[in-house]
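Here is one chain, start to finish.
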Amino acid sequence: MTTNKLVLGLPKGSLQEATFAMFKKAGYAVTCGSRSYVPQVDDPEIAARLIRAQEISRYVENGLLDCGLTGHDWICENGSDVVEIAELTYAKQGFRPVRWVLAVPNDSPIHDVRQLAGKRIATEAVGLTRAYLARHGVTAEVEFSWGATEVKAPDLVDAIVEITETGSSLRANNLRIVDTVLESTTRFIAHRAAWANAWKRAKMEQIALLLKGVLLAEARVLLKLNVARTNLDAVLAQLPALHAPTVNGLSDREWFSVETVVEERIVRRLIPSLKTAGAEGIIEIALNKVVP
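Its structure:
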């Protein structure tokens, strides 16, 4: 009978699918019905809860969750006092930070935050927006937006502060970005008392290690190839690696097997270069995790 249990908050909404996929690659199968808020994890030591990312840091701070995944933006918005275990750079559409931006209609005369003095701004991140305005010495009316924020300018408000990954939704609604309010990434956070508990801390560190390994692997692949002794130095000179390529001799002592982990973005130029240098039998393999 398992007596230790870690209560983990997972973000419901835009990050849910990406989070479940990341946990699967980390070795944790997470399943949840469309109407359920209690996901099932194939680890009896984890009790998961599906909660809006906006609320997770508050529940972690209050100890209702031992730990959870939420955005740096919502930690700041809530002013939550939590332990940050790891930064996990992933989002709904990719593996990069998201931005909260100040945006106005394309034909607006506003081109600087200081021109917002006395104006009305709609946003879901009221605290972030007020702090941003205060840093620039601007007094403006900031109202909470329940959603569909992009359509409120210019008829209802003068500007909006909205989260974006690519800016496509803003462009589709004829809005342009004036400034970046905050850049945010996902964080794995813990309640301070839970972090002080030896068993829970070890469990959280284990999860963080595997999740970071998944994200590190997302941009990398394993290259394997064969090369003759006469071309070995030329091939190795082409190869980057986390530390150094692995080189093993084959049954034919004049040939070697070489493998290394490289960034996927360079593979398209690297493979032709390796072939020219004398590599043969080049194989590219996708990775689930890379743990340095």
